[in-house]
Every structure is written in C-alpha cells, then in structure tokens.
Amino acid sequence: MKIIAATLFLAATAVPSFAQNADGSQNAPSRTPLLTDSNFEAVSPALDRYIREAILGDLWQRPQLSPRDRSVVTLAVLISRNQTVELPFHLRRALDNGVKPREISEIITHLAFYSGLGNATSVILLAKEAFTERGIGAEQLPAASPQLLPIDQAAEAQRAAGVERNVGPVSPGLVQFTGDLLFKNLWLRPDLAPRDRSLITVASLISNGHVGQISFHLNKAMDNGLTREQVGEVIAHVAFYAGWPNAFSAVPVVAEVFKGRPG
Amino acid sequence: MKIIAATLFLAATAVPSFAQNADGSQNAPSRTPLLTDSNFEAVSPALDRYIREAILGDLWQRPQLSPRDRSVVTLAVLISRNQTVELPFHLRRALDNGVKPREISEIITHLAFYSGLGNATSVILLAKEAFTERGIGAEQLPAASPQLLPIDQAAEAQRAAGVERNVGPVSPGLVQFTGDLLFKNLWLRPDLAPRDRSLITVASLISNGHVGQISFHLNKAMDNGLTREQVGEVIAHVAFYAGWPNAFSAVPVVAEVFKGRPG
Amino acid sequence: MKIIAATLFLAATAVPSFAQNADGSQNAPSRTPLLTDSNFEAVSPALDRYIREAILGDLWQRPQLSPRDRSVVTLAVLISRNQTVELPFHLRRALDNGVKPREISEIITHLAFYSGLGNATSVILLAKEAFTERGIGAEQLPAASPQLLPIDQAAEAQRAAGVERNVGPVSPGLVQFTGDLLFKNLWLRPDLAPRDRSLITVASLISNGHVGQISFHLNKAMDNGLTREQVGEVIAHVAFYAGWPNAFSAVPVVAEVFKGRPG
Fold it and tell me: Distance (Å, rounded) from C-alpha C80 to C-alpha B246?
C-alpha cells in the first residue's frame, strides 16, 4: 500500500504535464502544471504570490524583451541547469509564445554542447511528450544533416587562430572538435537564427556562472543583433530562473563588453 | 513485468520517505530514509561508514554550530544545489532539530531568488509531504503578505546607491527588482530572522561557488550576529554537502572579510 | 488512466536500463538505454546523429585516452554534476570497459567528498541495480576500513602546512577534516589507484568550474603518472559531458601547470 501511494505521488510529481491533460488546460497553462496553487499554499503562500505577481504578472510582461525571447531564454536556463521540474510548463509556454518546434529542437541540441550532454538528454522525453501532445511530428523538426548556412570565413579564421594559440598547446582534441563540430557545423545549422543561438549561449553562460566565457559570446550576440536593452533584460530575467548571484556576477563582464563596443 | 519492476524500484528510489512510514521511524530517522545501510553496503560500505561516523557521528555533534543551525545550513545547500535525494531526510531532521515550519517555508522562498526558481519548486512537493506527515497546516505557515520588518534606511540607501552605480548602466530591470522585490520585501519578511536569512544566503553562495558575491552577504551576516567561529564551521559543514572544492574556494574571500572587520 | 500512463512513462524515463533487460542488450548497450533512437528522433535527429557519430563514433575511439579511462572520467563528470539520466548507461559501459566494481565503488565514495554527499547518494541505487544485474556481490567491493596505503610523509607535511596557514585562521574544522578524513584516510584507500583518484578529482573540478582548485590536483595527478597528452584529452572528453565552457575555462590554468613542470 505504501508503495502504491508512493507511485501515484511520484507520477504526479515528476510528470506534471500529464495530470492536467483531461481538462484541456495544458495549451495555456497559467503556471507550472500540477505544482498547483494548493501545493504551493501548503508550503509557501509567499512563493505562490511572488510567482503569480512578480514573475508571471510583472517580469514576463515587461516590454524590453518579447515573450518569445523570454521563453527562449527560460528554456536555455532551465535546460542548462538541468531543472527538469519547470520544463514541462515552459516547453508548452514556449510553443504558445511562438517558439517553433524546430527552434526548440535546435536549442536542446545546441545546449548539449554548451552545457553538457546529460542536460540535453534529460529533456528529450519531456520535449517528446510536449510535441506529441501538440501533434508535432518529424516533418516539423530540423534534418539531422541540413544544408548549412554560409560561414563567415574571416571571423572563423580569427576565432580559429585564437583558439589554436590558446588551447592548442594544452588540448589539440578540443581545438579540433571546437572547429569541426561547433563553429563549422553546429553554429551553421539553419533552423535556429544565429542571433537566437547567441542568445541561448549567453543565457546559458550567465546562468551557470561561466563569466570568463561571456565576453566572446556576448560580442558575437550583439554582432548578431542583440541590443543593449535586451541584454540588460536578459540578465534581469535570468536572475529569477538561475538566481540573483549569477545575474550579479555577469554584470561587470557585460559592462566591459558594452564599453568596448561603439555606440 | 519489467515495467512493473521499474515502477516499484523507482517509487522506492525517488520518494524515500514513504517506505519507512509503516515502522514509524520517520520522525527520528537515523539517516537518509530508504537509502538504507543495505543499499549503501551493496555499493559502498565505506561511504556508509563515513556517513555514520564522520558526518552524523562527528560533524553534526561538533559544538561550534548548533544542530538547528546545521539543519538550516544543510537545507540551504541541498535546495540551492537541487539535491532532492537528500531532502526528504533533511526536511524531517530540520523539524526535529527545531527549525520551525514557517522558517522552512521562508528558506524555500528565499532560495527561489538566491538560487533560481526551479530549485524552490523542486522542493515544494517534498516539503508538503513532510508537513502533511507531521500535521503541519496552513496556520503554521507565513502569510503571503505579512507586516514587514522595519527597514534600515541608511544601509538600504547605501546598498541601493552601489547597485545603481554598478548595475544600473547594464540592467535597469535588475536594479529595480533587486530593490523592490528583494531588499524592500523578501529580506523584510518577519518569519525568518535576518541572521538566518543571511546564514542561508551565505551557505547558498559558498555551495554554488559564487565567491564574488560572498563579501557583501558575509558582512551582512556578521552584522546580523553570525560569529567568526560559526562562519568557519559553516564552511566545514558545507564541505560535506557541497563538496570540498566549494569550501576551499570560499576561504580566501572569507579571510579577507574577517581582516576587514574590527575585533 | 492518466496516472497509469504517467507512471509507465515515468518508469521508462527514469530507469532506462530496465526496459532493455528482456533483449539482453544491456551488457553492450550501443547508447543511452531507452533513450532510443526513436525518442531522440522525435525531438532532435541532429543530436541523435552527433551522439552516434561525433561522440560514440569519434571521441570514444581516439587513442589519446583508453576507453577505460574515458569511462572513469565520464563517471566522474556525471556523478559530480548529478546527471543521473546518463548514469545507468555509463555504469554498465564502465564495467564493459574494464573499470572494476571496487573502483566504481571508490569513485562514488571519493566524489561524495569532492562534489558533495548528495551526488554520491543519488547514484547508490543506480549502481546497486547495475551491480545486481551483473551478479556483483559484496565480495567484490572494498572493505569499509581496509589496510591503507603508506602515506608520503614529506608531501603530506607540506600539504598540511599550507592548509593550516591558509585555512586555519578561517575554519579549523575544515583543516582537521581535510587532514584526518581526506588525505590521511580517503586518499590512502587501496582499491582505487592514486593516479585514478587524481584523475577523477581533476575531471570533477573541471566539470564543475572549480578552476581555483585545479593546479594542486593536476600537479598531483601528473606526479601520479597522468601525461600531458592524457590531460589534454581529458579536457576534450569533459567538454562533451560537462559542456564546452567548463573545458575552455580550465585551459589557462592547465597551461600554467604545464609551464611550471619540467619536460
């Protein structure tokens, strides 16, 4: 009897998206499915209020970043920090906010390399479930080996030279994979815009405290079209999903990047 | 058959607190429930011994930090590192050690902001289960919007000016939320003493390697009453639950803070 | 009905190793069990291809590091980052690649201290399952209190003096536990070679961004026999399982260590 109870409890806990299927609410969930108000109220009515008012009611409505971009950033933070409990809700919210299935697929693939393979594999079955629920089939997903975007030869040569100089004497393997697999392949995949690829990379770096790697990718992101105002709002958004300390640790590095750019 | 076996196995794995309900031991568990000696012995008799002797038998008995404070610190580390496997045991141990339900509620809420929302939502159902088991109802929880503690206007003005100067040019949104939501609201909630709020913030920072954010919060913690001896013991305690490298990385920063203070 | 579906789904998700028991494939799995090609193809055919071609087909076949060492490194990364979804596969792959059960047991125990207790307890039941499946009993595990390896008195005296000088003024407890529990006990346990103990420590440090702690342990690892070529390849391997930013952040520190050593 104990074990049956545990199983039911666990089913409800770990696959929250299932439990609300019957009432059809999952296409426009107001918050984390099954982590309902009543569960939050049994532990922290305050957190319940903060989520409803400060996060969903205020943060997500701010105009400095579109709901679509906020969903992209939120997915990047949650995947790269392996916070699977929030993902069933935010995968569906991302689709509602206009993030394309092929973009979600590429976000997962990209973050396999930028945050570790296990974070990507952890989200595979959760994403499959959300896709199945919405009737999203293989024809909406990127090909395994699509026609790649054209490479910027000059920028790539400069990047490769820098990595060869700095990383070559330590790890020739890392130099090779970084070029062949990442910059000559992953980054050129066409189903996620370079600006969005940069956006999730920067969000992932900030949300995991990788301050030393922010400068290169933030410059690349801004070259790809991310504005200063958007960058500032990404930091504020990430504060909620990755914690205040990660946001604050990113600020001095971002300030330096801003100073080093024209305008 | 395979799937049934998997379900039972998983139930036992992921909701350890249930399995010992029948024998009544959960009110005074000697260690991680269901992660019993026999399971540890099937993998690592050495780890089993270390936990019983070095951690529960030695560390937790040291007088430099009360069992209550050790529970507060342990919850902070586990929540802010999303280590849910240890939480069912330590939520109950915290209650046994005198941490009030309202304090546990506030710890979860506070760490939603200081370690990311997903870490807090991951503990909601585990805490609800522990509260239900102990008969803890809504009347023992903090109000969503209580009467706040009075603010220290001078300290707040100084903090706000520093954040405006350093963060303002990068992320006006982060400046605003940090003031309105954190320092003028969260930190003033009355159901967790400022000293304890500082204690969990510092423990969370150390256990996630946020060395750049330690100085401000450690000074605040010591202003709020944490002694040098307690700080030193927090670091030793965190070493076990967040790993030695995080403890060692904190030491130079803590040493600097000690030097900069009178006495 | 919903709940039953959720339970079956969850069983398949969280204990992937079970589902392939019937066909006998688990002794030589081609990839993460149950995270089958069809599940990956429903979300990211690209990631499926990268795993098969770049990771299992290329990375794992490179001669700079043996498959056995790659398994040791992979276990260290996955355990110390708490990425349990990949562990059922890699625990079995490690056994297939010649990592001894007693070594796996010691890896788990060692990383309890170097990456936090919760990471080790999270793997206990997964490892028990893999051991049971392979018929590995208590007689193949290290004793809780074995005869320890002889200590290098000179090196230990130097280490202890440094820690006393740097850590002593802040945390006497950390000084004591570091000596008595780690360097005079854990590191001297005979069932994992000192070179392997260093290897997992370095892999764990890199994969969690603990750059400040790398120098000491990398020097110790190379004193214990790890070559420059192997170190470089460890970094490349860790890039895939802990993300590129952690690999790149380690490079400058490793370069400094290389410069400071003869040869």
Answer: 12
